[in-house]
Specification:
The protein is of the alpha+beta class and 567 residues long. It has eleven helices and 20 strands. The chain has a seven-stranded antiparallel beta sheet with strand order 2-1-5-4-3-6-7, sandwiched between helices. The protein has a five-stranded antiparallel beta sheet with strand order 14-15-20-17-18. The radius of gyration is 23 Å and the shape is globular. It starts with 18 loop residues before the first helix and ends in a 13-residue tail after the last helix.
């Protein structure tokens, strides 16, 4: 190996941990986080958490907030961000004691957009600070100019909602009611949000209980040494994978449709320099900060890079060691390094996926046998808010949908896959129809949306949501409307995102294609969405004839793919 892995001399007894015990402790730490995820999910009031799993929980190091462990059910984009968040709390809050819980959503302090609200709890074992337990949940609303927070026209963060610095929500085990009421009074759906607040607190409580039991069983010293050893091993494995990438500089561009204000594409240019077992990443040549809410904070940009490498090398255990060979230069002066007061509503759900796409495209020529073509690359964020005349109460519905995954070196892409930044799933339409005044008139796979290739892309989805009663305000933050996900190594692109809105007796295609807000819907009005298909992998002419015939029969290729007729 080109770069030796050095163990701290103070942990010279690391080798004495037998492999079985090391594995048991590793899985035990993961189980603590997974139980936190489950408590968070099962006790939340909002369907976006209880049904779609838009949340994450983890254990972070007492020294600097680096990741110790994650749950199997947490969204990857959050877990990378939470390390930055926890580090921020360590630096800014020197007054924390056992039983305190910090709440925050400030994007510039290790966050993403305002709807992703974080809680951080110092975990004490026998009166000693041992680690931090941190989690995040997507709240359906935090105020702002549109229900749900996905404004596409904001020009500063203050238009997007309530911005919470690292403040104590819980002091020594007791909720600070003044703080809680201040937050809830700035939210359109305070009652449900109160349930989500208590669910996050309950998840942290469950983590503290289970982590205490784990340390009781194995002892502080052994668990500490196991954490260090697990980091070393994760780093070793990641380095061994990076060494399979040929040395050199690999570059590619990806494009965001627009920033919601200026109807021009934004460029993400990634430059990957591979040198032995290290990879250096910079974004020189990317677009400058934009006027609208597609600016992306550092924590999100960093997390997206990590996720891209994890997609390529999925067997590397997720802890701080996994990331040490990956060196990312802060992209100051670009829209990938948002600074106050830049708006950030679309950063986590949309721009992060374009970053992943750029990295996959850059490395495709270098390691074609480990790459898949770009996926749909949009979360399909759709928000609807109003007062339901049947109940007289405010509601905010936040919905995201799946899309096609790209073909890969050994097979076709999956259809209706989740976003590349998470493992979340779409909420069942039956749940949404039960809770909100809407009807989904159809919900199908989108025929003809997969990109052609030796291995084809998967299909997106198509649905129509109609308002049944009352008046509602709709907004949506999506992407890949100008062009579909590109193919790789000769593959064809998937179909682009398409949105049509019927309101006021007329149909309308949004000016920015994939982004829009301020749509007033009345009973009978509807929104029609078709999500992108995945890009194709390899030359379409290399696909075997039986598969081509089957694809044409099932509608898996784009009708405009330009494939010649096969005799």
């Amino acid at each position: 190996m080109s770069k030796a892995i050095q163990r701290d001399d103070s942990n010279s007894k690391l080798a004495e941990i037998d492999p079985v015990t090391l594995t048991v402790i590793e899985k035990g730490l993961q189980q603590v986080c997974t139980e936190m995820d489950l408590v968070h999910e099962k006790t939340s009031f909002s369907p976006i958490i209880s049904e779609a799993y838009d949340r994450a929980n983890g254990i972070y190091h007492r020294e600097d907030g680096r990741m110790i462990s994650q749950g199997e059910l947490g969204l990857p984009i959050f877990l990378g961000q939470l390390a930055v968040t926890t580090n921020t709390v360590i630096r800014m809050r020197k007054d924390l004691v056992d039983g305190d819980i910090i709440i925050m959503n400030d994007p510039y302090l290790g966050g993403s957009h305002l709807m992703d609200v974080r809680m951080i709890r110092p975990f004490y074992y026998k009166d000693r600070l041992w680690s931090y337990l941190s989690n995040v949940g997507h709240w359906r609303d935090t105020g702002g100019v549109v229900p749900g927070g996905f404004t596409t026209r904001s020009t500063e963060i203050h238009q997007e909602g309530l911005r919470i610095p690292p403040i104590k929500l819980v002091k020594a085990g007791k909720i600070e009611d003044d703080v809680l009421q201040l937050i809830l009074n700035n939210i359109r759906v305070p009652n449900d949000t109160l349930g989500d607040v208590k669910a996050q607190i309950a998840a942290l409580d469950a983590g503290a209980k289970r982590l205490t039991a784990l340390i009781d069983r194995y002892g502080e010293d052994l668990v500490d040494r196991a954490i260090t050893e697990l980091e070393v091993r994760s780093e070793c494995l990641m380095r061994s994978h990076i060494e399979t990438i040929p040395d050199g500089v690999w570059t590619a561009d990806a494009y965001v449709d627009s920033d919601g204000i200026v109807n021009e594409a934004l460029t993400i240019r990634v430059n990957l320099e591979v040198n032995g077992s290290d990879i250096h990443v910079n974004f020189q040549g990317s677009s400058v900060p934009c006027a609208g809410p597609l600016n992306t904070v550092w924590a999100t940009t960093l997390s997206a890079v990590y996720i891209a490498l994890k997609h390529i090398f999925p067997d590397v255990p997720m802890n701080a060691g996994c990331f040490r060979p990956i060196h990312v230069e802060e992209p100051r002066g670009t829209f990938l390094y948002a600074e106050y007061p830049s708006p950030t509503a679309g950063s986590a759900a949309e721009v992060s996926q374009r970053i992943i796409e750029a990295i996959l495209l850059a490395l495709a020529p270098a390691i074609p046998d480990k790459i898949f073509a770009p996926a749909a690359g949009t979360s399909g964020n759709l928000c609807l808010g109003g007062i339901d005349p049947e109940t007289g109460e405010n509601y905010v519905m936040y919905y995201f949908s799946g899309g096609g995954y790209g073909g890969w070196y050994d097979g076709d892409g999956i259809s209706n896959g989740c976003a590349t930044i998470g493992i979340s799933k779409s909420q069942p339409v039956e749940i949404l129809e039960l809770r909100y005044p809407v009807l989904f008139e159809h919900y199908t796979l989108r025929e003809g949306s997969g990109g052609a290739g030796q291995f084809r892309g998967g299909l997106g989805v198509a649905y129509r949501m109609k308002l049944l009663r009352g008046t509602a305000t709709a907004s949506f933050m999506m992407d890949h409307g100008r062009q579909g996900p590109p193919g790789t190594l000769g593959g064809k692109p998937g179909a682009p995102n398409e949105i049509v809105v019927f309101h006021g007796g007329q149909t309308e295609i949004p000016e920015h294609l994939s982004k829009g807000e301020g749509y007033i819907l009345r009973p009978g009005d509807w929104i029609d969405v078709k999500t992108p298909g995945g890009g194709g992998y390899g030359d379409p002419l290399a696909r075997d004839r039986d598969s081509i015939a089957n694809d044409e029969k099932r509608g898996y290729f784009q009708t405009t793919s330009g494939l010649p007729a096969r005799g």
